[in-house]
Design brief:
It is a single chain. The chain has about 650 residues and is α/β, with parallel strands linked by helices. It has 24 helices and 20 strands. α4 (about 75-85) packs across α5 (about 100-110). The longest helix has 21 residues, at about 420-440.
């Protein structure tokens, strides 16, 4: 539809007063280039609403005031735990050490918050990350000074880049020893300043040098972690400060006291977005991980909306499963290792692209594919202004809570009809044809011969039921899961895309299972990632965490191996031992750490084992490891990524 025609269509549709006044803050914000103007209707509607609504009828409910509980004669370490308890945190992950001893001792003196001691600080940070993703609460990691802090840094950075609220507490030598070169001193004067190091990979990093300032600095860190967008924060506490007494400490009595919220999107912006979608010939709704909270609460209403108007839905990798991939309107993942039908739909042209909660980074854009640039009109909704328009030119930027936009679209869609019924019929026929072609083109997997990663995905998929959380590591397993698995909510899948950290799932699945013990927690990982952090199995055994690990075992650093093979034009053979892992026995390794382990070598075997393994994991409260011996020659769905990494920079 041309812009003048669309503008005429927008102006011809009066805004409805009820959703405008009930759901959104008033404001005028047409498309930034002025081509679409709906403000006159908005003004008319606002005036009409004011005339028709009596003051006594429009009074909102009173906001519940924040309340506090006061504690007296409490150490700094105890005050920290009181704040964590107010946040409903019931587990802290980390490794003890001399310079964090006051906090560890405070943890030992109480029973409400468990201290889960990992085998490595990096794994403990991954656990805190997984806990936060699974529960929506604050994840907490506690480590000692010096190497304890530096070891944790990768996990903390990974959480921060994925906008996960994680608080890291690191120890520090006593302040009177600053500058003396004390063991594990973490200052500029006598060691490595870990506070400054964390400043570059968190939303905030501070060192407490006065006990009286601790409550204020901690509250600031908690507010920052819970800000929009969420992020990781770091607080370093010297041992003498941690032991000092505070005369009075005030702690919120209700959880979520420090959480911030964005204002709702202006009604004019949401209405413009709705009308653009309603009148579009080839619309596309693209869901990123920033839409997770909105769709977990209003997923059914959103699904009804897109079905009413036949709006195709694609997701980013981190948004996978927010909309059922079994729905006929689902195009699957659009991005690296994504769906061919999603790519084909985009290639054929999109006139209105609505992006909900995606930064449109490399994973989400198929290595910044120029196909996205063909979208005629782009609407991008995000909580962070700086990410809007960083890849695509955006005609309608909406900086707001994604949930308010979803709610508004649902409300506006209740009574309106599609702008063009012929377009809806045409889209529905086209999507049916795409889905049919996709199913027809799917490879038929052999029932005999070597086990392929596609077999593993096919046999895993039926077990991703409503109460399953899947933690997918980085490597070839990422591509296979993205390309082959079909996720339907409320099943959830999590990826560490921000830093793309290998070994993440080994800790994250433990933290997730600790936080949500009623859920089935599965880690999907490669053998390279498994060897990086596989020792965290002993942590799961020690604390009775019944997580399930599925390991794609091809005895290679597979993503690197296939990437180099593709980039070199076959100069380096896939069976070249350069990237080999040395063929370790991962079953015996797992068993030596106390896990129950199984070797899967043939198609159909995983399907036979999984029902029993999943049941044992919960009944025995013991980690279960399925080592799947896959064919190392199977090429992962990373063609565009390999090409992007191998591309030669353009000369000026």
């Amino acid at each position: 539809m041309s812009q003048p025609a669309l503008a005429k269509a927008l102006q011809s549709q009066p805004l409805r007063a009820e959703p405008t006044t009930a759901l959104f803050s008033q404001g005028r914000h047409p498309l930034r280039d002025g081509r679409v103007e709906a403000t006159a209707a908005t003004r008319d509607t606002s005036a009409h609403a004011e005339q028709q609504t009596r003051p006594e009828e429009s009074q909102p409910e009173l906001t519940r005031l924040r309340s506090f509980h006061s504690f007296e004669d409490m150490t700094v370490a105890e005050a920290l735990l009181a704040h964590l308890e107010a946040e409903q945190v019931d587990a802290v992950f980390g490794i003890p050490g001399g310079n964090i001893a006051p906090l560890v001792q405070a943890l030992r003196r109480q029973s409400r918050i468990r201290f889960i001691i990992g085998s490595h600080e990096g794994g403990s940070a991954f656990m805190a990350d997984g806990y936060a993703r699974a529960t929506g609460k604050l994840g907490v990691c506690a480590v000692t000074a010096g190497p304890g802090a530096t070891n944790a840094m990768t996990g903390v950075a990974s959480a921060h880049l994925d906008q996960v609220p994680v608080l890291t507490i690191s120890g520090q030598v006593s302040t009177e020893r600053f500058g003396l070169g004390a063991i594990q001193e973490s200052t500029d004067e006598g060691g490595i300043n870990t506070g400054e190091m964390f400043r570059h990979c968190t939303a905030s990093s501070t060192t407490v040098v006065d006990a009286k300032s601790f409550p204020r600095l901690l509250e600031r860190a908690l507010k920052t972690a819970h800000a929009v967008p969420h992020g990781a924060v770091h607080v370093s506490i010297p041992t003498n400060i941690a032991r000092q007494k505070l005369a009075k400490v005030s702690v919120p009595t209700a959880p979520g006291a420090w959480k911030s919220t964005l204002p709702a999107a202006p009604a004019s912006e949401v209405y413009t977005a709705f009308e653009l979608l309603r009148h579009a010939k080839r619309p596309l709704v693209y869901l990123g991980s920033g839409a997770r909270e909105a769709l977990e609460s209003r997923g059914a209403e959103f699904a009804a909306l897109v079905r009413r108007y036949c709006l195709p839905v694609a997701t980013s990798l981190r948004g996978k499963g927010l909309f059922s991939e079994e729905d006929p309107l689902s195009l699957g993942v659009l991005g690296i290792a994504g769906s061919k039908r999603a790519e084909q739909y985009l290639r054929e042209g999109v006139d209105v692209l609505l992006v909900l909660g995606s930064r449109l980074g490399e994973w989400a854009t198929k290595s910044f594919s120029p196909l996205f640039e063909t979208a005629h009109t782009v609407i991008q909704v995000d909580a962070t202004p700086s990410v809007i328009g960083q890849f695509l030119q955006v005609e309608l930027p909406i900086v707001a809570d994604v949930g308010s936009v979803v709610a508004g679209l649902v409300e506006f869609g209740h009574g309106a009809a599609p702008g063009n019924e012929a377009h809806v019929r045409e889209r529905r026929q086209h999507l049916n044809a795409l889905n049919l072609a996709h199913r027809s083109a799917a490879d038929v997997l052999p029932e005999d011969g070597p086990l392929k990663p596609q077999h593993v995905m096919e046999e895993l998929n039926p077990h991703l039921h409503a109460h399953t959380d899947l933690y997918v590591d980085m490597g070839n397993c990422t591509g296979w899961a993205t390309h082959c698995l079909r996720i339907t909510p409320p099943a959830r899948v999590f990826y560490p895309c921000g830093l793309s950290s290998m070994g993440w799932s080994m800790g994250a699945v433990i933290g997730g299972k600790v936080g949500r013990p009623e859920n089935t927690a599965i880690a999907l990982t490669g053998d390279g990632s498994f060897l990086m952090n596989g020792t965290e199995l002993v942590t799961a055994v020690r604390y009775g965490v019944g997580a399930v690990y599925i390991v794609l075992n091809d005895n290679y650093l597979g993503m690197v191996n296939h990437g180099e093979h593709a980039q070199s034009g076959g100069e380096y053979a896939l069976d070249d031992p350069y990237f080999s892992l040395g063929d370790p026995d991962l079953v015996k390794f797992s068993e030596s750490l106390g896990a129950r382990a199984y070797e899967v070598t043939r198609p159909g075997q995983l399907a036979e084992l999984l029902p029993e393994v999943l049941q044992r994991a919960d009944e025995e409260r013991r980690p279960q490891v399925l080592v799947c011996r896959i064919d190392y020659r199977e090429v992962p769905p990373y063609g565009d990524r390999f090409a992007a990494v191998a591309s030669t920079p353009k000369e000026d």
